[in-house]
Amino acid sequence: MIAVPEDVLTDYQRLVGNRDVQAIVDYSGPGARRDTVEMILLQQALHLGGSTEVVRFSPLNSYARTFHEVESGRVAASGTSAWAADAVDRKVQLSSALIQEGEYVVGLYTVATNTAVLGMPIASVVRQTAVTNRAWVNDYNVLLRLGFKHIESAPTFPMIARMLKAGRAQVTLMSFKPTPDLSLTLEGIRLVPLQGVKVAMPGSRHFLFAPTPEGDQAMRAANIGLAKLRAEGRIRRAYEAGGFFNARVNDWTLLNPPK
Fold first, then answer.
1. Would you give the end-to-end CA distance of the chain in angstroms?
2. pTM of this prediction?
3. How far is C-alpha 121 from the chain's CA centre?
4. How confident is the model at residue 91 (pLDDT cuts 50, 70, 90)?
């Protein structure tokens, strides 16, 4: 059993449809985003690495609980990537990196109807309230370093979207999307990025595997497969299709360049 957030599973099902996951080489389509293409990459990597186990996904909305369930061996792996820094002192195994140090760049997103924030200079934006999941330590720390003094927490991304819609917060960090305006619509709530600015996220991201014989076997297969996928350029292609590696923001100002 592999844990994934419920909203990601829904979009994954839209993206894959009736296609054979192992035959997918075009990762674009409705529902494509970082998380959903990672679910495809994991299955392809396991297959290329020699695994014959049937992959079953289990909805699990809490990032912190995903670590706990993998650590305890109740699920074999995470279906989407996690920060390596969050795995420190946890009894989980990490795959080779899907997203390497320096590759992760995101936007500051708000609801499309919040024209006030969309028109603000960034010095005013950081005086607004941001929202993230407190368990996403990297996101929280990046918001602090950007200058946000008021940061709310919500346990799932749909709840973050609802807080933005309700005006309880104004911005959140989110990876770019492949839609024409880089937007994401979640539960009828349309989120759009503040134009012209982007944010670097430190660290690398990996699949989590349980410290069990099943988890160990799956991790070995996944690492073999991920090496093959990277050599073929398919990991990059998948993230481009999901909008995560996005050429449209190449010229946007990086708010936190490396020192």
1. 42
2. 0.88
3. 27
4. very high
Whole-number pLDDT of residue 259: 75
Answer for the pair 189, 164: CB distance below 8 angstroms, yes or no: yes
Q: Tokens standing for 183?
A: 């937007």
Rounded CA separation 3/57 (Å): 6
In our burial notation (b when 16+ CB lie closer than 10 A, e otherwise), range 229-252 reads bbeeebbebbbbbbbbbbeebeeb
DSSP tally for the chain: helices H, then strands E: 9, 15
* Contact of 33 with 243, CB cutoff 8 Å: yes
Q: Say whether pLDDT at 75 is over 90.
A: yes
Q: Is residue 68 within 8 Å of residue 46, measured between CB atoms?
A: no
Which residues are 111's β-sheet partners? 191
Helices (H), 56-136: 63-72, 115-118, 122-125
